[in-house]
Amino acid sequence: MLHIFYGDDDFSIHEALEHLKAMVQPPDLLDANVSRAQVSSLSLQQLVALCHAVPFLASRRMVIVDGLLALFEDRRAPRGGRGSRGSQGEAANTPSPWLSLDKHIPTMPPSTDLVLVERVRTLRKDNVLLKRLSPLGQVTGFPSLRGQELGRWVEERAAERGCSISRGGVRLLAELVGGNLWAMSSEIEKLSLYCQGRTVEAEDVSLLVSTAMEKTIFNAVDAIMEGRHSEALRVIRRLMEGGASGPYIVTMIARQGRLVLLFKDMERRGVPPGQMGTRLGLSADWMLRRVMGQGRRYSQAALESLHRGLLETDRAIKSGQISEESVGEFLIEVFTRVSLAQKAAR
Q1: Where are the alpha helices (DSSP H) in the chain?
Q2: pLDDT digits 0-9 by tens, 39-54
Q3: Which domains does the chain have, with CATH numbers?
Q4: pTM reported for the whole predicted model
């Protein structure tokens, strides 16, 4: 059977592939009966041969090809892959051998599952190969989950792990982790083990989810930059009560300041917003939004003042001038200088 999997939700594509692999029995012969290749290293003739191979002492055989349909996303015959020949100009005007794949699908033995995998959010409706293959198999999209769909996924995943999560817990988990289901699955596993026999609440999420620390750091930076000194101190003390050391807190706040400065530089140079998250190394959408928001609210002078003040605090800690317990109080002076710089720049 032909399967077409596409989307930017790599986790769900992986699970769908694992589900099909589970149908290849016995499990100890899985490697001998599952073939996977990039289209750039494969010709049509080789693919047809793989699909017609007899399963080795197993009930089924599985062939996975990555990137085939993407070759036809630009409305031209593909240049890449061993199935095409000639220069780029010739490839654009010469029919690709891959366009005859639809003729071979009906001849595949029933024991073969052919899976075409495309890690793109969507496929064009005018993709010529997709139009030919769609009637011959099953097409499944795996877009990144957001909003209510992500919330339902969290609840279902938790139920599979034998636990339930309150609405507040689901909302906070979705906000902190976002649509990265690899990270979300790991956090749900951790929460289910911690909260055995009871409902996971928002407080549990705040305590255990690793990105909760990141969000708290964002809040600390906002409080520092906006002159809300007492709130900033409360945030820092809460972090320390949770086990964070003084140097770690200073390092995390400094990292956040650097991210905002880098964003301001990229915005000045005209870097497209879609590339900023990758360049900054931020995987969660909410983190990029917070960095962008802070970058547009705070001046370059204020951010540079924050950075210098944090370096001064770090040196004071390492030289023994201040103790771990007095980090928050020492930062008051730093906060004040930053606030003055922010006001002077307005």
Answers
A1: 10-21, 30-33, 44-52, 88-93, 101-104, 128-133, 147-160, 167-177, 181-194, 202-208, 211-225, 229-241, 246-269, 273-280, 285-297, 300-318, 327-345
A2: 989 999 999 999 999 9
A3: 2-141 (3.40.50.300), 147-208 (1.10.8.60), 211-345 (1.20.272.10)
A4: 0.59
